[in-house]
Every structure is written in structure tokens, then in C-alpha cells.
Amino acid sequence: MSGTKQGARLRATAAEIVDDVVSGGRSLDKAIADREDRVAADDRSLLRLLSYGALRHHWRLMSWVDALLERPLKSRDSVITQLLVIGLYQLNDTRIPDHAVVSQTVEAARALRRPKLAPLINAILRRALRDRIFDTEPSNENAALDHPGWLLDALKADWPNDWRDIATANNARAPMWLRVNAARGSAAEYKKRLEDEGIESELLQQAPQAVRLASPQPVLALPGFADGEVSVQDAAAQLAAPWLLDGVEGRVLDACAAPGGKSGHLLEIGRDKIELTCIDSDKERLTSVAENLDRLGFDATLIAADASNPSKWWNGEPFNAILLDAPCSASGVIRRHPDIKHLRRASDIEELAGLQRKMLEALWPALRTGGRLLYATCSVLAAENDKVVAQFLETTNDAREDDVLQNYNIRDLMRDKACGHQVLPGTAELDGFYYAGLVKVS
Q: CATH homologous superfamily for 237-440?
């Protein structure tokens, strides 16, 4: 295959992926997984760059598409609309030469079996360059901040002094954080190993096992990864395990365990002092938990079940600690998953909050008196976080908030909420996470 045809195939595939998310409502991970084998292995990093970038900046890019087109394309040609988005993203946000962008994006229309639209794409991209469309101010706030209106409204309501910073952080490319296996060595030692391999990194005082890479690396290029010496996990997520296990031994439940990052961390810290049970409703995702634990060299009891219905899986023996990393909007990890901005709707938040309350209420009887439940989400929205916890505390007589932080240093990363604590995305290069520690009293 010639270089032009190979480049055209790549751009056509990226347009199909973006269209799958925007028009089809599919997750970005699934859309990529279904199609990346269509492009050469050496081109897959560029495929991901174009797909992620186009979704991350879709509102700005679409404002330019709308300005350049005399009338919108027909719905059956939505993939060509996304091909234009891909083309404009390349021209404005990458270093790919303009002539290569234009020629290969035009050729991509033919690869998508829309040859009659190839001249239109050529004209639009050349007009964008000629008229310097990229210098024009965005037409509205959604385009300026690359967020849907409902989400900006929610951020303004919950974070009136921080909402712009949150939106800006959401649009940044996420760094690659590692978690060093505490059973195998220290973060400082691993940082030295990375330096010996020519890989730059930094440590984070508040998360003693965390290492942030200066630039992302293939996991198999990381020393010791295959042997379980290190895992990929954002440092904000690494706050959960030491918080839950502070002073805890015995039976521990990870109630929504997949894909297993926090499960592995719990066992790295607790080792043979804890007996871990991992629950997840998705059998396929529970397989990833097993694979992660196997790589790390740990065992746990894995149960495919609905954590909100303990009568189906709980034997009645109470747990000393429970981690409830509840299903949520994932509004704190948008920089890693830009498709969230396209897939979530305002109506989802109330439904998710109802599920979160249901899970809290269902799991509480499984916690022993004196035990700790750590409620966590990767959301920044109060409706899923402190409001859920506050309502639970109001209606549960034997529940109290334990607002003493396990590691006082992490206070520098967090905002105190009415209940619990919030890490905002971008703080110390972290994802957005919410935590609330609850204890069961007599």
C-alpha cells in the first residue's frame, strides 16, 4: 500500500471511530478496539492521537466546520462531517505538514466510499487555511471550552470559582502515572531504575508509591512491569488503598473491583494481613481483575455479582473494611476519556446518584461495627459525591463520617466538601476523585 493510501486509510478509520462515538454513542475504547487492526501497527499511535484529539476539541472543531460549510451534510454522511473534524484538528493541533493533511484527508473520503464528497473536503480544508479560520474566536462558550452546555452548567453550580480551571484540565492530555509495588520496592528505587533506562520521572510526596513519567511509555518497556513490580494507575486513585487499610486487617471487600487497579494496591499494602473479596457485576471485566492480580502475584476471592444485592453473594460474615468505588459519570477523568463529554447526559446524573445511594445502603449491613467504608468516585459533581454521602448519613443511625485523613499530607491535594474531600482534575497533575470515609458505630 502506498504512503498516501496508508495515510488515507488511517484518517478514514479515525473518522469512523469519532463518528461511532458522536453519532453512535459507543465508547472510545470499544470503537478503537474494533478498528485499530485496520491500520499498520506503526500508525496506531497516530490513530489514537487523532481520535482522542478530535473528541477532546470537538465543539471548537465543529464550530469551524459549521462556519465553513454552506449547509450541514446529510445525516447519512455524518462520517464525512467527522472526517472534516479530523482534518481541521490536524491542521490546527498537529505538526503534520498542511499538504499531507489535505491530500490524505481528501483521499480518505474515497476510502470511506464517498468519492463525490472528496472535492468538498479539499475545498473546505484549503479555505480553512486561506481564510485563517483557526485565528477566529470561538462562536460560543461550548466551543471556547470544548464542553457540552449541561456539563458547564453543572461545573459552574458546584465549583463557581474553579469551573474554568476544571474545564481546562479536562481538555489537557493526561500524564502517565505508575504505582510501584510496595511489596517489591520503593518509588525512589524505581525512579532510579527509570533513569538508568533514560526515562525521566517525578515522585509525589502525598502518594508514596506514585511515579509520574515525563512522557508516556509502552507498558512493556517499563522495567519490571511484566513481573508485577509496577502498575499503571493515576496517583489520585492511589489514595484509596492506604486510606481504607489504615489500621485494618482481616476481611476486606472491594465492591466494584474491575479493572483491578485498587484491588492490586490493597494487596500490595495488606499482603497476608488481609483477606480480599472482589465483586463486579461484569464477568468480562472481572477477568481483567484476575489477570492484574496474577501479574502481581496475589490471590483474592472473585465474585461476579451485583454489589447492591448482597443476598445473592454475601455469606453473612461481616467485613472489616469496604471500598465502594461507585459507578459514576467519570466527570473527573475526562482528560483520559474525552468520549465522556459526548456520551453523558444531564439526566444520567440523577440516575447514577440513585444507584450510588442504593449501593451504599445495601453494603452497609455487611460492614462490622467499628469498620470503615471508603466511598469513592471519579466524579467532580456534588450530586454524586457529598450529596449522596450527606443523605446517607442523615438516614443511617449507625453511620458517622471519619473526616480524619489517613495521611495529613494529602490535604494539600484536596478540597473539603460538606462531607468528604475532593481532588480536582489537574491538581498536581492528578485526575479528579472524591473520597468520604465512613465508620459504623454502635
A: Vaccinia Virus protein VP39 (3.40.50.150)
Active site residue 328: no
> How many CB atoms lie under 10 A from the CB of residue 14?
30
Q: Yes or no: say if 243 and 437 are a contact pair by the CB < 8 Å rule.
A: yes
Q: What 3-state DSSP class applies to 255?
A: coil
| Assigned C-alpha cell, 79 | 462520517
Q: Which residues contact 183 (CB under 8 A, 6 or more apart)?
A: 268, 271
The Cα 139–Cα 144 span in angstroms is: 7
CA triple 348-430-143, angle to 5 deg: 55
Per DSSP bridges, beta strands 201-203 and 230-232 are: unpaired
CATH 1.10.3430.10 fits 3-143, yes or no: no
Is omega for the bond preceding 338 within 30 degrees of 0, making it cis? no
Please pick, among 256, 328, 378, 419, the residue that the annotation labels catalytic.
Answer: 378
Q: What is the largest CA-CA distance in the chain?
A: 74
pLDDT in 10s for each residue of the chain, 442 residues: 567 789 999 999 999 999 999 999 999 999 999 999 999 999 999 999 999 999 999 999 999 999 999 999 999 999 999 999 999 999 999 999 999 999 999 999 999 999 999 999 999 999 999 999 999 988 899 999 999 999 999 999 999 999 999 999 999 999 999 999 999 999 999 999 999 999 999 999 999 999 999 999 999 899 999 999 999 999 999 999 999 999 999 999 999 999 999 999 999 999 999 999 999 998 889 999 999 999 999 999 999 999 999 999 999 999 999 999 999 999 999 999 999 999 999 999 999 999 999 999 999 999 999 999 999 999 999 999 999 999 999 999 999 998 777 676 788 899 999 999 999 999 999 999 999 999 999 8
* All three cell numbers of 75: 445525516
Question: Which residues lie below 8 Å from residue 315, measured CB to CB, with a gap of 6+?
Answer: none
Fold of domain 176-232: Alpha-Beta Plaits (3.30.70)
Give the contacts of 313 (CB within 8 A, at least 6 positions apart): 279, 303, 305
With b meaning 16 or more CB within 10 Å and e meaning fewer, what string describes 310-340? beeebeeebbbbbbbbbbbbbbbbbbbbbbb
Residue spans per domain, the chain: 3-143, 176-232, 237-440
Helix (H) or strand (E) holding 415: strand 415-416
